[in-house]
Amino acid sequence: MSTSITAPAGRPAPSRGSSTSQTEAPRPITGKSISVGRRVRNTTATVLVGLAVLVAAVPLAFVLVYVVSKGGGVFNLAFLTESIPISSRRAGPGMGPAVAGTLLITGAATLMAVPLGILAAVYLNEYGQANRLAAAIRFLSDVMAGVPSIVMGLFIYTVWVLRFGMSGFAGALALACLMLPIVIRSTEGVLRLVPRDLREASTALGARTSRTILTVVIPAALPGITSGCLLAVARAAGETAPLLFTIGTVRALNPNLFEGTNTALSAQIFVNAQLPFVAAQNRAWGAALTLILLVLLLTIIARIISARFTVR
């Protein structure tokens, strides 16, 4: 005996296989559905963020415009390559020894700080994540990051310069001490972003921890590590106070890092800016522009490397 289902009048009969209770599709969120209070808070937060960006950008723009207007008149190829005049009253180029000294001292500091900082970050993140030694290293790294640069220069002056004299190596030591905490903290932060699944997959294939770090973890984090190291180099290149206590304020380049005084752009800015002669002050502005362009170049390279090689 067959039975038939009849729908009430005015309602269609439900089809076979269809559910009698159907859920309505979610309505899209429109401007009218957002409450007035939420829109006011959103607009207020947007305005405050824009004002904060403006407050940070306006002083930077004024500094850049002023330095370019003052130093652009003497900035040229001869300024970057020719020697510093013996007489401070003499007009003209150059800052060649200071440019070479900056690259030499900063390069030596990079060779000391970057490998040591990367090794320390690898230990903190991969081996001693929660032991007391790792906690002590993190604490000391944070303290070093907050130490004023002049204090670091006085430390190297007491430990090294009073025993062995001023030298480019002493300046490199001071800059390396300033770079080290930046490299450690930035590298450790990047290593934490590497997925744990990659480490576990490498371990499951039989690789040791050291091989996993060298072939899996570090290559995955290399763009961020490179970016952090270049930013540390950019900060060290513009330091003045540590170099005044370690390399002196001479005008000539000394290629020997371990003996004799040396020069750098920041030291020449400090010396020439204090002199009453127009030529010396112009050279100071030109050196300031050179240093800003050097730091800007390193920052751009760091951003390009981070954006180009980051795996998305």
TrEMBL record:
Belongs to the binding-protein-dependent transport system permease family. CysTW subfamily. Residues 99-306 form the ABC transmembrane type-1 domain. It is found in: Cell membrane. The lineage of its organism: Bacteria, Bacillati, Actinomycetota, Acidimicrobiia, Acidimicrobiales. GO terms for biological process: phosphate ion transmembrane transport. InterPro entries: MetI-like, MetI-like_sf, Phosphate_PstA, Phosphate_transprt_permease. This is Phosphate transport system permease protein PstA. It is a multi-pass membrane protein. It comes from uncultured Acidimicrobiales bacterium. One of its GO terms (molecular function) is phosphate transmembrane transporter activity. It comes from the Bacteria. Part of the binding-protein-dependent transport system for phosphate; probably responsible for the translocation of the substrate across the membrane. Keywords: Cell membrane, Membrane, Phosphate transport, Transmembrane, Transmembrane helix, Transport. Its main location: membrane. Residues 1-35 are annotated as: Disordered.
